[in-house]
Amino acid sequence: MKTQRRTPPNFHALPAAQPQVLYLRDGEVVLYRRTRSLLYQCRYKLADGTWYRQSTRKASVEHAIVAACELYDEARFRQRLGLAHRTHLFAQIAEEVLADLRTQIDLGRANLSTTPTSVVLSVTFCRTLAVNALRKSRTRTLPSLRCGVTGRC
């Protein structure tokens, strides 16, 4: 009976395993890849202790590390300046204002004769604009828009 000689495994031919989770910046930034995604996600801890999750939009781990650290630095910088850690669209803020207005109307605290139609028109006019992208020149067209839609000037 002839014995077969086993060939030693070629370790260089094996693919390198990527780590499941990477901790950066003393654990303040966590980089990971979801199971059904090719892109890396990160979550970072803000100064008030809350965690925020965001996509790095990078498939390479090297690029994702840089992107995650930049996202974290920008969020901390914005928070230090008293700004929101991410930019909100005008429509998101207006929807919150309208929801608050609806609850005030339901509770009988709002004056129905001064229902702000301009707020509703502003939501439709500026829906896709970021709040920091609003300019005075764009908001000047709102009264003419209101006059055209409602007939009241």
Figure out the total of helices: 5
Number of DSSP-assigned strands: 4
**Strands across the major sheet, in which order?**
1-2-3-4
Shape annotation:
elongated
Give the distance, in angstroms, between the N- and C-terminal Cα atoms. Answer: 103 Å
Helix fraction? Answer: 25-40%
For the largest beta-sheet, the strand count, sense and barrel status come to: 4 strands, antiparallel
Mean pLDDT: 75
Structural class: alpha+beta
Number of domains: 2
Order of helices and strands: EEEEHHHHH
The residue ranges in which pLDDT falls below 50 over 5 or more consecutive positions are 135-140
Which percent range describes the beta-strand content?
5-15%
- Our Rg estimate from Cα atoms comes to 26 Å
Keywords:
153 residues, alpha+beta, 2 domains, 4-stranded antiparallel beta sheet, 5 helices, 13% strand, elongated
Can you offer a commentary on this structure?
With 153 residues, the chain is an alpha+beta fold. Helix content is 39%, strand content 13%. The protein has two domains: 63 residues; 61 residues, no CATH class. It contains five helices and four strands; from the N terminus they run ββββααααα. Strands 1-2-3-4 form a four-stranded antiparallel sheet, with helices on one face. Strand 2 and strand 3 form a beta hairpin.
